[in-house]
Design a protein that fits this description.
With 380 residues, the chain is of the alpha/beta class. It contains ten helices and 21 strands. Strands 11, 12, 13, 14, 15, 16, 17, 18, 19, 20 and 21 form an eleven-stranded mixed sheet that branches. Strands 2-3-9-7-5-4-10 form a seven-stranded mixed beta barrel. A two-stranded parallel ribbon has the order 6-8. A hairpin with a 4-residue loop joins strand 2 and strand 3. 52% of the residues are buried.
């Protein structure tokens, strides 16, 4: 529930965590109430891309960078048609945006889209709390939505957990659409939208790929009706343990040995299709400064992440699966979380992070070239 109120910066607001910790500040964006999983993102730039990333559905995002909103909001950098975060938490919102592309302030855009936020709180203390206790359910309340803390806490604790949440169909396109190749068309790719970001098909189109973006409910018949040279599974929100439909579809693609590439949620889907389990991380990886090693080359990349779940696969050996040998191809250097998988006996691989990263970094953009190489090899 939200109301649009000018001068929200003067309206009191409170953030309530499910363990009873509270933070008091001022309203930012729309005034009202909102609920979601409180998570933190360490990116110092790219807040517009973060807020419009469908993978953040039902999450209250805490910005660890102290000042947010300096570059305002433009009409070019959205990763989807709307803001998906359920709430936004910042310490020091910029008073005046300063960028030649800015059309309005971040505060104005949050208000326009009905996104309830809070500013003026100690985001360092909040981030430390989430690191120690883990991501948890939370609520932001401002203006008339503020009530006694015991009542607000009870409402937060009544919200559903992220574990077990099936969200990918909520954010995916309902109708198929095509992103044409830039220049000469070289390949056709069927992209399964589980929460796809706008930059992803663009990165493929730059490489001469015509991308057919299909709904999350697409069947194998839908995929092969476009006569694809390769199949792509996108990022998306929620618990991968609930994604039985996408797992079945990926299994069908693997059975036909079509070149396959998955990112983020798509990596978890590949893990499940290969017989590995998935699990919820304590506080996840979110931001644009995560170090990952590509074990196939030894190169360390700075990468963009947004995931609260991970694949449970062995790091120290090649695994035997029903689709041949598989290995962990990428690993996070902060905590040894699996950041990529690849099959050794057929053309399929995935990564847990975001190589399209419109806001940067672009260290991992070569992965789209690797996908092209797989399709070239299959065609040959």
């Amino acid at each position: 529930m939200t109301t649009s109120t000018r001068g929200a910066a003067r309206v009191p607001a409170v953030l309530v965590l499910e363990d009873g910790r509270t933070f008091r500040g001022r309203a930012y964006g729309a005034v009202g109430e909102t609920f979601g999983e409180a998570v933190f993102s360490t990116g110092m730039t790219g807040y517009q891309e973060t807020l419009t990333d469908p993978s953040y559905d039902r999450q209250i995002v805490v910005a660890t960078a102290p000042q947010i909103g300096n570059t305002g909001w433009n009409d070019e950098d959205d990763e989807s048609g709307r803001i998906w975060v359920s709430g936004y938490v910042v310490r020091d919102p910029a008073r005046v945006p300063s960028n030649w592309r800015a059309k309005r302030s971040l505060d104005d855009e949050l208000e326009r889209q009905g996104v309830v936020g809070i500013s003026g709180i100690d985001t360092r203390a909040l981030t430390r709390h989430l690191r120690e206790r883990g991501s948890m359910r939370a609520g932001i309340f401002s203006g008339a939505a503020i009530a006694p803390e015991a009542e607000l806490l009870a409402r937060v604790q009544a919200q559903p957990h992220m574990k077990g949440a099936s969200l990918y169909e909520e954010v995916a396109t309902k109708e198929a659409y095509v992103v044409p190749a830039v220049g000469e068309k070289r390949f056709t790719v069927a992209a399964i939208d589980l929460g796809i970001k706008g930059m992803t098909p663009h990165r493929m189109a730059e490489r001469g790929i015509e991308v057919h973006v299909l709904p999350a409910t697409a069947t194998a018949d839908d995929v092969y009706a476009v006569d694809p040279d390769g199949v792509f599974f996108s990022n998306g929100p929620g618990d991968p343990a609930t994604a039985d439909g996408p797992v079945a579809l990926m299994t069908a693609v693997l059975e036909r040995k079509t070149p396959l590439f998955g990112i983020c949620f798509g990596n978890q889907i590949l893990g499940r299709a290969l017989g590995f389990g998935t699990y919820k991380l304590k506080y996840g990886h979110r931001g644009i400064n995560q170090p990952v090693q590509d074990r196939t080359t030894g190169k360390v990349e700075v990468t963009a992440h947004n995931h609260g779940f991970a694949v449970d696969a062995p790091l120290d050996k090649v695994s035997e699966t029903k689709f041949g040998r598989a290995e962990v191809s990428h690993v996070c250097l902060n905590d040894d979380v699996v950041e990529g998988l690849q099959l050794l006996d057929q053309p399929a691989f995935s990564v847990q992070y975001h190589p399209e990263a419109a806001a940067g970094p672009h260290d991992a953009a070569y992965l789209f070239d690797r996908f092209v190489s797989l399709m070239e090899g299959q065609r040959a």
